[in-house]
Amino acid sequence: MAQQLLIYENAVPISKKRHASFSIKGGNDYYFAKSANSVPLTTVEFSLAAAHFPIIFAGSETDIMPVAVMGLRENENLFINEDGSWAVSYIPTFIRRYPFVFSSGDGGKTLTLCIDESYKGCNQDGKGERLFDSAGEQTQYLTAVLNFLKAYQTQFQITQAFAKKLKDLDLLEQMGAQYRTRDGQIRSLTGFMAVNRDRLKALPDETLLSMLKSDEMEIIHLHLQSLNNFSKMTGLLPEDKAKDQAEPAEEKAESTSSKKAAKTAKN
Fold first, then answer.
1. Quick one: pLDDT at residue 146?
2. What percent of the chain has pLDDT over 90?
3. Looking at the domain assignment, is residue 265 inside a domain?
4. d(C-alpha 30, C-alpha 141), whole Å
């Protein structure tokens, strides 16, 4: 659940009693995600996200998930402009669903819709969309939110199964990316994984064919292509912290198996 609550400060279950007079005023201010240097990404998002973000795999031995990398350093999101607007055309669903989120205390068997009451768009002044109408029934807006999060949860579970399959096939390897600061210091990003091309090519023909028919090969290809975005991200660093050159993450990923340099860490 911690991975699901990266950008949430005060998520509480939505109820008629507590939120009868609550409204949500949306906007284009994504400053709430300013400290999120990565967020979970579902496979259905890869085709659009791969144009902007490096897509890597992170997590524990039993819980691996694709992640869109949005910052080269801790607590820094390079895709949010100074005015709070999003800097590129695609916004991950994890971000778009905010301030709403599902919570669960029984391993996902039951889900409770929550809202982050710290979101500045939450108000009791009637600004924006009401959560409940005057009769205490959920509005069309809240119903749409609920359906959106249900669809996201379904895709999240599908993606978890895909990531588990990659692990079971031993396709994932530890990787790292390096970049050089303007003052010549070498900085590293470690603790995540990528698909090993050689291991992928070595799979049995029947497995490769099955993955091709199920579109899993396309998803893997998008993941590998997206690693080139690491070098692009260095150009997004603030001027006083920019680097002179960066080592492409994909090359680093392919050499990691021999160097064994990556250390496990969570984003």
1. 97
2. 71
3. no
4. 20
Closest CA to 91 of 52, 61, 124, 64: 52
Residues 162-169 have a mean pLDDT of 97
Query: Is 253 among the domain residues?
Result: yes
Domain that holds residue 118: 3-259
Task: Give how many domains the chain has, as a whole number.
Answer: 1
Model-level pTM?
0.84
Residue 37 lies in a domain: yes
The distance from CA 57 to its chain's CA centroid, rounded to whole angstroms, is 10
Q: pLDDT tens, 142-162?
A: 999 999 999 999 999 999 999
What would the 3-class secondary structure string for the chain be? Answer: CCHHHCCCCCEEECCHHHHCCCEECCCCCCHHHCCCCEEECCHHHHHHHCCCCCEEEEECCCCEEEEEECCCCCCCCCCECCCCCECCCCCCHHHHCCCEEEECCCCCCCCEEEEECCCCCEECCCCCEECECCCCCECHHHHHHHHHHHHHHHHHHHHHHHHHHHHHCCCEEEEEEEEEECCCCEEEEEEEEEECHHHHHCCCHHHHHHHHHCCHHHHHHHHHHHCCHHHHHHHHCCHHHCEEEEECHHHHHHHHHHHCCCCCCCC
Q: What pLDDT score does 260 carry?
A: 36
Give pLDDT tens digits for 177-214. Answer: 877 665 667 878 888 999 999 999 999 999 999 999 99
- Return the pLDDT at 182: 56
Is 266 a member of any domain? no
